[in-house]
Amino acid sequence: MDSIIPSYVKEILEESYICFCKKDFIENDPVQIPHRYTKKQDIEISGFFAAILAWGQRKTIIANSLRLMEWMDNAPYQFIINHTEADLKPFLQFKHRTFNDIDVLYFIHFLKYHYQRHDSLEAAFIQNNRSHEEGLKQFKPYFFSLPDFPPRTTKHISSPASKSTCKRLNMYARWMVRKDEVDFGIWEGIKATDLFCPLDVHVERQARTLGLLERPQRDWEAVKELTQHLKQFDPKDPVKYDFALFGLGISDKKH
Protein backbone atom coordinates (compact mmCIF):
# COMPACT_ATOMS: atom_id res chain seq x y z
CA MET A 1 0.00 0.00 0.00
CA ASP A 2 1.32 3.45 -0.95
CA SER A 3 2.40 5.61 1.96
CA ILE A 4 0.61 8.93 2.37
CA ILE A 5 2.90 11.91 1.79
CA PRO A 6 2.24 15.00 3.97
CA SER A 7 0.36 17.83 2.24
CA TYR A 8 3.14 20.34 2.94
CA VAL A 9 5.36 18.36 0.54
CA LYS A 10 2.91 19.15 -2.26
CA GLU A 11 3.11 22.85 -1.36
CA ILE A 12 6.90 22.73 -1.60
CA LEU A 13 6.78 20.93 -4.96
CA GLU A 14 4.11 23.22 -6.40
CA GLU A 15 6.06 26.34 -5.46
CA SER A 16 9.25 24.95 -6.96
CA TYR A 17 7.43 23.81 -10.13
CA ILE A 18 5.97 27.28 -10.68
CA CYS A 19 9.39 28.82 -10.07
CA PHE A 20 11.34 26.65 -12.50
CA CYS A 21 8.90 25.64 -15.25
CA LYS A 22 9.34 28.85 -17.23
CA LYS A 23 10.77 29.81 -20.59
CA ASP A 24 14.00 31.06 -19.04
CA PHE A 25 14.63 27.47 -17.85
CA ILE A 26 15.24 26.55 -21.50
CA GLU A 27 18.28 28.78 -21.95
CA ASN A 28 20.66 26.69 -19.82
CA ASP A 29 19.14 23.26 -20.31
CA PRO A 30 19.63 20.66 -23.10
CA VAL A 31 15.93 21.09 -23.94
CA GLN A 32 17.05 24.27 -25.73
CA ILE A 33 18.27 22.08 -28.61
CA PRO A 34 14.84 20.89 -29.82
CA HIS A 35 13.43 24.35 -29.08
CA ARG A 36 15.45 25.59 -32.05
CA TYR A 37 13.05 23.78 -34.38
CA THR A 38 9.38 23.84 -35.32
CA LYS A 39 9.01 20.76 -37.52
CA LYS A 40 7.85 17.76 -35.51
CA GLN A 41 10.53 15.37 -36.77
CA ASP A 42 13.29 17.96 -36.26
CA ILE A 43 12.15 18.38 -32.65
CA GLU A 44 12.12 14.60 -32.16
CA ILE A 45 15.55 13.96 -33.65
CA SER A 46 17.37 16.91 -32.08
CA GLY A 47 15.68 16.18 -28.75
CA PHE A 48 16.64 12.52 -28.92
CA PHE A 49 20.32 13.31 -29.40
CA ALA A 50 20.27 16.00 -26.70
CA ALA A 51 18.63 13.59 -24.25
CA ILE A 52 21.03 10.75 -25.04
CA LEU A 53 24.02 13.05 -24.50
CA ALA A 54 22.55 14.43 -21.27
CA TRP A 55 25.11 13.37 -18.74
CA GLY A 56 27.96 15.49 -17.51
CA GLN A 57 28.10 19.30 -17.50
CA ARG A 58 25.13 20.96 -19.16
CA LYS A 59 27.34 23.39 -21.08
CA THR A 60 29.21 20.47 -22.66
CA ILE A 61 25.99 18.59 -23.40
CA ILE A 62 24.57 21.65 -25.16
CA ALA A 63 27.78 22.37 -27.07
CA ASN A 64 28.12 18.80 -28.36
CA SER A 65 24.44 18.60 -29.25
CA LEU A 66 24.74 21.82 -31.22
CA ARG A 67 27.78 20.43 -33.01
CA LEU A 68 25.77 17.41 -34.15
CA MET A 69 22.96 19.64 -35.39
CA GLU A 70 25.42 21.83 -37.30
CA TRP A 71 26.82 18.76 -39.05
CA MET A 72 23.21 17.94 -39.97
CA ASP A 73 22.92 21.41 -41.54
CA ASN A 74 20.49 22.34 -38.77
CA ALA A 75 17.85 20.33 -40.61
CA PRO A 76 18.09 16.98 -38.81
CA TYR A 77 15.11 15.26 -40.43
CA GLN A 78 16.19 16.08 -43.98
CA PHE A 79 19.73 15.02 -43.11
CA ILE A 80 18.62 11.70 -41.63
CA ILE A 81 16.50 10.86 -44.65
CA ASN A 82 18.76 12.15 -47.45
CA HIS A 83 22.39 12.01 -46.24
CA THR A 84 25.13 10.38 -48.28
CA GLU A 85 28.22 8.54 -47.07
CA ALA A 86 30.28 11.69 -47.70
CA ASP A 87 27.94 13.66 -45.42
CA LEU A 88 28.89 11.37 -42.53
CA LYS A 89 32.60 12.21 -42.51
CA PRO A 90 32.41 15.00 -39.89
CA PHE A 91 30.85 12.58 -37.42
CA LEU A 92 34.01 10.46 -37.42
CA GLN A 93 35.56 13.04 -35.07
CA PHE A 94 32.66 13.13 -32.61
CA LYS A 95 33.07 12.24 -28.95
CA HIS A 96 30.99 13.01 -25.88
CA ARG A 97 32.30 11.16 -22.84
CA THR A 98 31.90 7.47 -23.88
CA PHE A 99 29.58 8.26 -26.81
CA ASN A 100 31.72 8.32 -29.95
CA ASP A 101 31.65 8.19 -33.76
CA ILE A 102 30.67 4.50 -33.85
CA ASP A 103 27.67 5.25 -31.68
CA VAL A 104 26.47 8.36 -33.48
CA LEU A 105 26.77 6.69 -36.90
CA TYR A 106 24.59 3.80 -35.75
CA PHE A 107 22.06 6.22 -34.27
CA ILE A 108 21.86 7.96 -37.64
CA HIS A 109 21.53 4.60 -39.39
CA PHE A 110 18.68 3.53 -37.11
CA LEU A 111 16.85 6.84 -37.41
CA LYS A 112 16.95 6.66 -41.19
CA TYR A 113 15.57 3.11 -41.05
CA HIS A 114 12.81 4.18 -38.68
CA TYR A 115 11.75 7.37 -40.48
CA GLN A 116 11.59 5.55 -43.79
CA ARG A 117 8.79 3.49 -42.21
CA HIS A 118 7.15 5.83 -39.70
CA ASP A 119 6.21 9.49 -39.56
CA SER A 120 7.21 9.93 -35.91
CA LEU A 121 9.74 8.51 -33.46
CA GLU A 122 6.84 8.03 -31.07
CA ALA A 123 5.95 4.89 -33.01
CA ALA A 124 9.13 3.28 -31.66
CA PHE A 125 7.74 3.57 -28.12
CA ILE A 126 4.14 2.50 -28.67
CA GLN A 127 4.38 -0.59 -30.84
CA ASN A 128 1.64 -3.19 -30.23
CA ASN A 129 -0.33 -0.73 -28.04
CA ARG A 130 1.57 -1.71 -24.91
CA SER A 131 1.75 0.28 -21.69
CA HIS A 132 4.39 2.99 -21.61
CA GLU A 133 6.54 0.82 -19.34
CA GLU A 134 6.34 -2.01 -21.85
CA GLY A 135 7.04 0.47 -24.61
CA LEU A 136 10.24 1.51 -22.88
CA LYS A 137 11.20 -2.15 -22.50
CA GLN A 138 10.71 -2.96 -26.18
CA PHE A 139 12.40 0.22 -27.46
CA LYS A 140 15.93 -1.10 -26.92
CA PRO A 141 15.49 -4.41 -28.82
CA TYR A 142 13.80 -2.49 -31.63
CA PHE A 143 16.60 0.09 -31.70
CA PHE A 144 19.19 -2.67 -32.05
CA SER A 145 17.22 -4.84 -34.45
CA LEU A 146 19.28 -3.82 -37.48
CA PRO A 147 21.97 -6.22 -38.75
CA ASP A 148 25.53 -5.71 -37.55
CA PHE A 149 24.75 -3.15 -34.86
CA PRO A 150 27.89 -2.31 -32.82
CA PRO A 151 27.66 -4.07 -29.43
CA ARG A 152 29.43 -1.18 -27.71
CA THR A 153 26.53 1.13 -28.61
CA THR A 154 23.95 -0.88 -26.65
CA LYS A 155 25.11 0.73 -23.40
CA HIS A 156 23.73 4.07 -24.58
CA ILE A 157 20.11 2.90 -24.68
CA SER A 158 18.71 1.87 -21.32
CA SER A 159 15.76 -0.35 -20.48
CA PRO A 160 13.57 -1.14 -17.46
CA ALA A 161 14.22 -4.79 -18.32
CA SER A 162 17.77 -4.37 -16.97
CA LYS A 163 16.48 -2.42 -13.92
CA SER A 164 17.94 0.84 -15.23
CA THR A 165 16.35 4.12 -14.15
CA CYS A 166 16.14 5.07 -17.86
CA LYS A 167 16.70 8.68 -16.82
CA ARG A 168 17.47 9.98 -20.30
CA LEU A 169 14.63 8.17 -22.06
CA ASN A 170 12.19 9.30 -19.36
CA MET A 171 13.39 12.88 -19.75
CA TYR A 172 13.01 12.63 -23.52
CA ALA A 173 9.48 11.26 -23.16
CA ARG A 174 8.66 14.13 -20.80
CA TRP A 175 9.82 16.64 -23.42
CA MET A 176 7.73 15.04 -26.15
CA VAL A 177 4.54 14.22 -24.21
CA ARG A 178 3.95 17.00 -21.66
CA LYS A 179 2.80 20.41 -22.86
CA ASP A 180 3.78 23.69 -21.20
CA GLU A 181 6.33 26.48 -21.68
CA VAL A 182 9.22 23.99 -21.66
CA ASP A 183 7.84 20.65 -22.89
CA PHE A 184 6.45 20.24 -26.40
CA GLY A 185 3.38 18.01 -26.21
CA ILE A 186 3.81 16.70 -29.76
CA TRP A 187 3.19 13.04 -28.93
CA GLU A 188 -0.42 12.01 -28.38
CA GLY A 189 -0.16 8.22 -28.15
CA ILE A 190 1.42 8.38 -24.69
CA LYS A 191 -0.41 10.20 -21.91
CA ALA A 192 1.24 12.46 -19.34
CA THR A 193 -0.24 10.32 -16.57
CA ASP A 194 1.74 7.31 -17.87
CA LEU A 195 5.15 9.00 -17.79
CA PHE A 196 7.86 8.16 -15.27
CA CYS A 197 9.90 10.73 -13.39
CA PRO A 198 13.52 11.01 -14.57
CA LEU A 199 15.68 9.89 -11.66
CA ASP A 200 19.29 10.91 -11.22
CA VAL A 201 21.41 11.43 -8.12
CA HIS A 202 20.13 14.99 -7.58
CA VAL A 203 16.44 14.14 -7.93
CA GLU A 204 17.00 11.08 -5.75
CA ARG A 205 18.50 13.19 -2.98
CA GLN A 206 15.57 15.61 -2.96
CA ALA A 207 13.01 12.82 -3.18
CA ARG A 208 14.49 11.09 -0.14
CA THR A 209 14.61 14.35 1.81
CA LEU A 210 10.91 14.90 1.15
CA GLY A 211 9.92 11.32 1.92
CA LEU A 212 9.00 10.54 -1.68
CA LEU A 213 11.46 7.68 -2.03
CA GLU A 214 12.31 4.94 0.42
CA ARG A 215 13.77 2.21 -1.77
CA PRO A 216 17.54 2.11 -1.08
CA GLN A 217 18.58 1.27 -4.65
CA ARG A 218 18.44 3.81 -7.46
CA ASP A 219 16.83 1.54 -10.05
CA TRP A 220 13.63 1.09 -12.05
CA GLU A 221 11.58 0.12 -9.01
CA ALA A 222 12.71 3.38 -7.36
CA VAL A 223 11.52 5.29 -10.43
CA LYS A 224 8.11 3.64 -10.13
CA GLU A 225 7.92 4.32 -6.39
CA LEU A 226 8.77 8.00 -6.83
CA THR A 227 6.32 8.42 -9.71
CA GLN A 228 3.55 6.72 -7.77
CA HIS A 229 4.08 9.08 -4.85
CA LEU A 230 4.01 12.09 -7.17
CA LYS A 231 0.67 10.88 -8.53
CA GLN A 232 -0.81 11.55 -5.09
CA PHE A 233 -0.36 15.25 -5.86
CA ASP A 234 -1.23 15.27 -9.57
CA PRO A 235 -2.51 11.96 -11.02
CA LYS A 236 -2.82 13.40 -14.52
CA ASP A 237 0.62 15.02 -14.70
CA PRO A 238 2.94 13.62 -12.00
CA VAL A 239 6.17 14.21 -13.92
CA LYS A 240 5.72 17.99 -13.87
CA TYR A 241 7.37 17.72 -10.45
CA ASP A 242 10.62 16.76 -12.16
CA PHE A 243 11.09 20.54 -12.51
CA ALA A 244 10.43 20.96 -8.79
CA LEU A 245 12.89 18.32 -7.65
CA PHE A 246 15.52 19.61 -10.08
CA GLY A 247 14.95 23.17 -8.86
CA LEU A 248 15.26 22.18 -5.23
CA GLY A 249 18.52 20.41 -6.08
CA ILE A 250 19.89 23.54 -7.74
CA SER A 251 18.91 25.60 -4.69
CA ASP A 252 20.71 23.18 -2.39
CA LYS A 253 23.89 23.51 -4.47
CA LYS A 254 23.85 27.27 -3.97
CA HIS A 255 23.75 26.96 -0.19
Fold and architecture overview:
α3 (40-52) runs antiparallel to α8 (167-177). The protein has a two-stranded antiparallel sheet. It has helices at residues 7-20, 23-26, 40-52, 58-71, 76-82, 101-115, 132-143, 167-177, 201-209, 220-230, 241-254, and strands spanning 95-96, 99-100. It has one domain (7-254). The chain contains eleven helices and two strands. The chain is an all-alpha fold and 255 residues long.
Instruction: Summarize the main sheet.
Output: 2 strands, antiparallel
Low-confidence segments: none
Share of helical residues: 40-55%
Give the helices and strands as they follow along the chain.
HHHHHEEHHHHHH
What best-fitting shape do the alpha-carbon axes yield?
A: globular
Q: Helix/strand-derived class? A: mainly alpha
Mean pLDDT: 95
Secondary structure tally, helices: 11
Taken as a percent bin, the fraction of beta residues is: under 5%
Beginning-to-end CA distance, first to last residue: 36 Å
Tell how many strands the DSSP assignment holds: 2
Spatial arrangement of strands, main beta sheet? 1-2
Whole-number tally of structural domains:
1
Radius of gyration: 18 Å
